[in-house]
């Protein structure tokens, strides 16, 4: 792979409803390796046609067709980006937690995604929202996205949902490490009030993530909140202590680590676009998710430039690309042409 193609494998860009060719530019010029349906796509047939096109235009490298990670944000409740014919209206996390056979239900929802060409779901939520915080927790509790108010309940729901998705041939994404359940601000909407002053490195709220990893999840999403007892004022996704130390070393996760959105999120707005990518990779992350596809060239250039001048960072890029390609190989996305 060229340096540009390597960098492109480490990015996921959103695509709003519209022409399936919207991302052809960054796929062709920057080797964009992953995409996310965002903005409320309608009808399975429409999504399936777009997914087919995306795989058709994905790059061929040294005789191997490198397919795309085609993702959706399909938790249920208030967070369901794909609706209409072919997509069941999914209940919220709190409602799913009451399902005695959630794994089977999740397999059904996952089968709908698979039929639409979606191979990654940016769910489940593994955040624990304590009952004393409840709906005051803006990102999760306010919308009932959590599976419960204890780590045990959150773990049970997240594991069942994730396994159901995998049963359907869709890779789940456990989020938002190390947990958003005890903050009051929403990292997508503001840059204040997003500090968890309670979380510790051996916190019980890490249990749902540990259990999901043990159950075989291959993708974990890291959030952009701050955790004052762990790494001061560094956002989680830029913290080597959190990504490399806690997630990789403490929990033994060797899969793909992805960011929450860094394109439009207020929590990282003060960080230059290119640095959002390089700082995450430096922390031990792999795929940078941006809701703004226009940022892809800037991020790719930043990754290339830093890798060229920093041998240690270049090794991290190589390791990240290897993890992404290993995931794609496991998913059957690498094919000899």
From TrEMBL:
This is beta-N-acetylhexosaminidase. Keywords: Glycosidase, Hydrolase. One of its GO terms (biological process) is carbohydrate metabolic process. InterPro entries: GH (IPR017853), Glyco_hydro_3_AS (IPR019800), Glyco_hydro_3_N (IPR001764), Glyco_hydro_3_N_sf (IPR036962), NagZ_Beta-hexosaminidase (IPR050226). Residues 170-200 are annotated as: Disordered. It catalyses: Hydrolysis of terminal non-reducing N-acetyl-D-hexosamine residues in N-acetyl-beta-D-hexosaminides. SUPFAM superfamilies: (Trans)glycosidases. It comes from Janibacter indicus. Belongs to the glycosyl hydrolase 3 family. It comes from the Bacteria.
